[in-house]
């Protein structure tokens, strides 16, 4: 009789894997320009994490095949790069970086409010 050995399951570490994806930038298809710094991200991750991002990145204005295939570049005004970086980390990993203070923003684990603030800046005309 032959017995089959159980194959160990891979560790459930989605947060780390998504964080690694953000850091590596592989497959990124959207670029954010924030105060002279460039941040690359993945539309599908942003859209999965936020209905507002989903509407903005895949909505009516982005429906053409050419627009969907082209890399998107979004300028963010009135936000510090450190704040934006922390926001992306939160979106990808559900974890917050160490508490940090920046001009105009104080991050004390209040990311839902910060996310709302960011989204209002992205969607403002």
Explain this structure to me?
By secondary structure, the chain is of the alpha+beta class. It has six helices and five strands, in the order αββαααβαββα. It has helices at about 15-25, 45-50, 50-60, 65-70, 80-95, 110-125, and strands at about 30-35, 35-40, 70-75, 100, 105. It has a three-stranded mixed β-sheet with strand order 2-1-3. Strand 1 (about 30-35) and strand 2 form a beta hairpin. Helix 2 crosses helix 3 (about 50-60). The chain starts with 13 loop residues before the first helix and ends with a helix. The relative contact order is 0.16. Mean pLDDT is about 75; it is low at about 100-105.
Over the alpha carbons, how many angstroms does the gyration radius reach? 18 Å
Name the helix and strand elements from N-terminus to C-terminus, one letter apiece.
Answer: HEEHHHEHEEH
What is the SS-derived class?
Answer: alpha+beta
Helical residue percent?
40-55%
Please indicate the percent range of residues in DSSP E strands (runs of 2 or more): 15-25%
| Overall mean confidence score, pLDDT | 76
Work out the helix count. 6
The first-to-last residue Cα distance is 70 Å
**Dominant shape:** elongated
Report on the biggest sheet. 3 strands, mixed
**Widest beta sheet: strand line-up:** 2-1-3
- Ranges where pLDDT stays below 50 over 5 or more residues in a row are 101-105
Number of extended strands: 5
GO biological process, one term: protein ubiquitination
Organism: Eleusine coracana subsp. coracana
Pfam family, one: BTB
Pathway: Protein modification; protein ubiquitination
